[in-house]
Amino acid sequence: xxxxxxxxxxxxxxxxxxxxxxxxxxxxxxxxxxxxxxxxxxxxxxxxxxxxxxxxxxxxxxxxxxxxxxxxxxxxxxxxxxxxxxxxxxxxxxxxxxxxxxxxxxxxxxxxxxxxxxxxxxxxxxxxxxxxxxxxxxxxxxxxxxxxxxxxxxxxxxxxxxxxxxxxxxxxxxxxxxxxxxxxxxxxxxxxxxxxxxxxxxxxxxxxxxxxxxxxxxxxxxxxxxxxxxxxxxxxxxxxxxxxxxxxxxxxxxxxxxxxxxxxxxxxxxxxxxxxxxxxxxxxxxxxxxxxxxxxxxxxxxxxxxxxxxxxxxxxxxxxxxxxxxxxxxxxxxxxxxxxxxxxxxxxxxxxxxxxxxxxxxxxxxxxxxxxxxxxxxxxxxxxxxxxxxxxxxxxxxxxxxxxxxxxxxxxxxxxxxxxxxxxxxxxxxxxxxxxxxxxxxxxxxxxxxxxxxxxxxxxxxxxxxxxxxxxxxxxxxxxxxxxxxx
Length: 487
Description:
Layout: H1 9-16, H2 20-27, H3 52-62, H4 68-78, H5 87-101, E1 118-125, E2 132-133, E3 136-137, E4 141-147, E5 153-158, H6 164-178, E6 184-187, H7 191-194, H8 199-216, E7 219-222, H9 232-252, E8 256-257, H10 260-276, H11 279-288, E9 301-306, E10 312-315, E11 318-321, E12 330-335, E13 339-344, E14 347-353, E15 364-366, H12 369-378, H13 389-392, H14 396-408, H15 411-427, H16 431-443, H17 450-457
Parallel strand pairs: 1-6, 2-8, 6-7, 11-15
Antiparallel strand pairs: 1-4, 2-3, 4-5, 9-12, 10-11, 12-13, 13-14
């Protein structure tokens, strides 16, 4: 048609690449050839004829959030002859109906981020990675921090659930690793940390979180409850960091680590490699961060506990043993995510591994047999019904030997022998070596020979050094009198 404006029909048709007759024919048509095609008709009967408008539309109007699969199952219940292959047809038709008649949908608003303005914190579960420590499954989470502009990330292994202690420790580690403080710090609603807390405890936790942010000069903000996409810049990053950890585990060839410290070093290496890819933008953001304070603030929770006559104390549904000389004393316990520091007045006594209560609400036990073995030797039968008996054995070999003795020697003999073994392990500092011998006895299905074991782990008199002390004459001290105060 463009050629026809300046050329006759024959010339215009030749330029367009078809015959003069076709040119005359097209000139007489009102529509283009593509518009002149007859509309495509249905090739098979409509499986939803008489059903969609009469039954599906009322369901969509009364319950807009109803899933297509639920509607399809309901139609299959009502109409037994409805084929399963019509599911996709129903889903496409529901999608088209909602585009024309459905409710308004939430709109996402893309944000412009400034360097040094916003840092995000969140927790993510890691159970699906199958990480083990010394052969035991590690139930843990990751505290995840991210600076939104530069992409700087920090991750910290959390053994318990979401809590203020975990947040305070992880956040401070992240800020000192980043080398500065953002203007705003955003978390989710912290509902997991508040769960099962009384109103007063929730208010106290809120004050402590506000004080933590004030110490670093950050303004605390939270996204609305249940609106995860408001924290989307870190929610989406959870998947990326977990994928990076999974790949690193596959390249490593094993998901088992010798101890928790080794696994934490592994996580640090993975996160450092991710940060290395964003070095230019991280450097830009670091220049915009606010300076750190002179020192960290508290990242623990302090509780007063009383040591009972049971030789320990109960804290958060977990019983901990301590040396029996502390019975009756009140101790200050500082709760961290993975440990508890105990203080008597201003004196630091010891650090205990922090235990966790069972998911079913059953109390947990963190027991050191060295704390109670001196009393248990005087009352060995107390072992039979001891509440924390399973937690008392330091290694599986001792537990298995006790079960073997119960089966073959009876309760009284089993309690006496196993208490003697635990006392020997403590007094002779041979816990690991003795456990190896017990494994050999179990493999041979024999009871241990206490007398031979005592002889094996007793010091050899011939090997003891002979110490000779020569005492000086007392008169030699008289020469010091003349020195006076200087002496």
